Amino acid sequence: MNQPMQPATDRLVHLDVLRGFALLGILLVNIEWFTRPLQAIVLGAEADLAGIDAAADLFIQVLAEGKFYPLFSMLFGAGFALMAERALTRRTPFWGIYLRRLVVLALFGLAHMVLVWAGDILLVYSLTGFIMIGLFRNTPARRLWKWALPFIFLPMIVMWLGTAAIEASRFEPEAHQQLMAEFAQDEDTHRKRIAQAAAIHAEGNWRDNVGQRLEDMRFTLTHFIFWTPPVLGFFLIGRWLIVSGRLTRPAEHRMWFRRWRSRGLLIGLPLALAGAALTREANMMVPTFTAALGLSLTAVAGLLLALAYLSAVTLGASRLTFLAPAGQMALTNYLVQSLFWTWLVYGHGFGLWEQLPRSLQLLLALGFFAVQVVVSAWWMGHFRFGPAEWLWRSLTYWQAQPMRR
Question: pTM here?
Fold first, then answer.
């Protein structure tokens, strides 16, 4: 029988700080999609934003959208590599346990997606984790980041090829006209689905929302093929950061972190601004070179700024240790964010759908995260794991883990 796994006594506190910081970014991005139908993500910025609401939306788009899921993905890959290294050092089983860990995470993600909120990332992480193990189980350290880059930018390549094919159809006016008519019909159908989802979120009961989330799942999983390559690439970068010693011995690599903090900010921020300018009103359902360029700039900026954030927080981790407890129970906090905001906004809860302006969303997200930081510090002062982490670990080892300190 497997023995209960004790919490690591040699925790890398800066990794918990990074997870806590990433949680804030994830909430800043997700709060829009707690208050707006998920399918509207392909239609660009919300219509009729002006003044301080438009400024808040631009702030989040430039600094957060597409920057924190890469960071969280890197940390997921780093966690895999760290567990593998420690299992090898301690000569304890790893692969079977880690595969069970991914299966349990998939169950968490599926339940989250159906019962709470369809924008779940846990199922994507779990399925991508299986792909990573299948393709890159024993990849040498020096090759990990080299494999990562093609996967990160593969969706961009596909997007440019598709856009080029559509533009080439202009040489056959009849075929091009038919193609654009099909795009217009698809867009009309999609907008009707968005309106239906908005009505259900605003007025439907919990059962109605579960039905809508099942519909949303089809949209989410249809786009899984576009999510998987970059997530896999970020997993590999996270693994490389561990096996290269950068995230296990950061004091020895301070120059590397300083370099990428500067590069990421100096290059990533202008690219993010340019990408936002090109995509704010872009309709992703009708591919154009403008949209392709904007999304490409956004993707490059996402990688650079994720590395900049990782580097800056790692360098300043000793001053940010208040974030560590939130990072230790990141799974619990992620799920609580979804539970709280959907019940606050949806019709089966407090019914505040369409009543939270974009600027207020930003302030509420910051305030809610501050509460999570305080509660996490109290909880981790009394318990070894967050509630979801305890359940995840107990199901992985099929034995209840010690909870109280």
Answer: 0.93
